[in-house]
Amino acid sequence: MARSAGDLSASRVANLAANAVLVGFEAYRDEFRSISRRAAGRFARRDWAGALADATERLDMYSGVIDGVERVVRETLADRVTDRVVWASIKAVYSGLIARRDDWELAETFFNSVSRRIFATVGVDGGIEFVDSDFETPPVDAGSLLFHAHELRTDVTELVETILRHDGLQAPYQDLRRDARLAAGRLTDHLERAGLPERIDHAEVIEAPFYRRKGAYLLGRLVVGERFVPFALALLNTECGIVVDAVLTDENDISILFSFTRSHFHVDLDPPYRLVRTLKLLMPRKSIAELYIALGHHKHGKTELYRDLLHRLHDTDERFRLAPGTPGMVMIVFTMPASDVVFKVIRDRFPAIKPTTPGGIRESYRLVFRHDRAGRLVEAQEFEHLQFDRARFEPELVEEFLRDADQTVDVGPEEVVVHHAYVERRVTPLDLHVRQAPDQAATAAVVDFGQAVKDLAASGIFPGELLPKNFGVTRHGRVVCYDYDELGLVTDFSFRQLPEAASDDDDLSDEAWFGVGPRDLFPEEFSRFLGLPPPLRDVLERSHGELCQVAFWQEVQARVRRHEIMDLFPYDPSRRLLSAAAGPAPDGRPAGTA
Ligand SMILES: Nc1ncnc2c1ncn2[C@@H]1O[C@H](COP(=O)(O)OP(=O)(O)OP(=O)(O)O)[C@@H](O)[C@H]1O
Ligand SMILES: [Mg+2]
Fold this sequence. Notes:
The protein is α+β, with helices and mostly antiparallel strands. 43% of the residues lie in helices and 16% in strands. The chain has helices spanning 10-45, 48-77, 84-98, 104-119, 156-164, 176-193, 251-257, 272-282, 288-294, 298-315, 358-370, 395-404, 430-436, 439-458, 504-508, 526-529, 534-544, 550-561, 578-582; strands at residues 147-151, 202-206, 210-212, 215-224, 227-238, 241-248, 266-267, 321-322, 331-335, 341-346, 380-389, 409-411, 415-425, 428-429, 461-462, 471-473, 479-481, 488-489, 494-495, 520-521. Strands 1, 2, 3, 4, 5, 6 and 7 form a seven-stranded antiparallel beta sheet that branches. Strands 8, 9, 10, 11, 12 and 13 form a six-stranded antiparallel beta sheet that branches. The longest helix is centred in the first third of the chain and has 36 residues, at 10-45. 41% of the residues are buried. The structure holds adenosine-5'-triphosphate (ATP) and magnesium ion. The site of magnesium ion (MG) has 4 residues, from loops.
């Protein structure tokens, strides 16, 4: 006769539950790998719509798998489901089960996802989740890196040619020799500029190509004596075959490729721990958390982010305070002075001009999480039940919580519990930047702001409110959007011509005098409402005047409705080779990428 869960010994249910979590984790890993592996075929067949669909499918998969595991664990544990003693055993058994895995860190995060679902743990609880890893982090030595070495036999062109003949690529090149020669030229120029005219000893190339949108990337480093020079070769698959579209040789360029504003890569290479450490050598300034996230391991990236936060709290006595810039009407945003992240808490209520709800805000953040972020939308990680000492908060911030976020933040005498927050990279708000930066930097930012709006449009997104306070500038000087409450699909808005004004007075009024639907937009007004000083407004109109034309927006909408996957290059045009080599692609437009 089958025994019910209540009859089984505690150690028996602990074993069953730990195994159920492991089975779920393995299913998740298999599915993650199989979706990532599809990328090579998508690229070879130029199936961009399929590539984008895979990206969303992979993002959605995690919580679906956790749902299933949660169900099994609840059934297995029955009335012992919240028994902490049983959970301590489950954790111990599980720790033993994953000890020899090379993806143990992801396995620990997976376990935490399950246990936090069941307990809604406030703060963290080392008894039932892996706050720190149970295992020593293995040393990173040459043998553990995921590089494949290519010797320089004759010349740099031949070396590049060998690199380009990558096993992972499943389509032919248009003209391999030509591209190898052009790319080799760029690499040699770079070495000369960097004062490294010596001979390249060899190249180390990461064993699998990285795929995202319409692009494939080969990453690695040149070994020149004692020095390492990171590089990325950006490939496109045109109708006439693969071409090398760009060569990136600068740590900053490669870092931009891996930006927190871009969608995740699909790479068929494991284990993640070693891949992340290999990438870190190419981008030493990028955090481990961001590298995991860029590879699609966003939940583990979140674990790393949280560990970074704990270290910062432990190592400094910095306090949380309101983030510099224009305070949000729907969000309370706070940070620590030297930290590179901000925390965003949804206010309990919004002023009347914000016709949305806390649920609506979450929907917008979810849209951004699942959508192509086009290098222009900051990725936010969602945290629940964060617990801090009250003393770590500036009184002004505590007041703000008490006044406006009673439903999300519990302020106790000793502790503050933030029940829901988005944590994202901190950037310099564009409104502050244009006021404080030297003229040249302010001008460059305004030009890139226009480009950001265009890139978002090309990806199918309209940011809603085109105001500098909703955009920020990254350390690489790129303008990105972080305010999502009015953001939507570009096809959900109606871009309209301004009606003829009834009188001159009407023309000058800031309030629209004719009926305006909530999603009606008047591009002709965009630059007037930006609040930029006149010289900067001129800069915008000169560099991106189309943004103020209805026809531009209607054309974008038509292309998005035709499901066209538009080009978005995650690098500066000066890094491109293609225009020099082959001119525009056969279909008349520059060949697409990224
Ligand atoms: N990632 C970030 N880095 C730096 N500062 C930020 C970031 N996100 C938000 N801020 C700061 O917090 C303010 C409010 O954030 P946000 O615009 O997201 O909130 P909101 O309530 O939606 O704003 P709004 O009232 O414009 O709708 C911004 O104006 C900016 O000063
Ligand atoms: Mg804002």
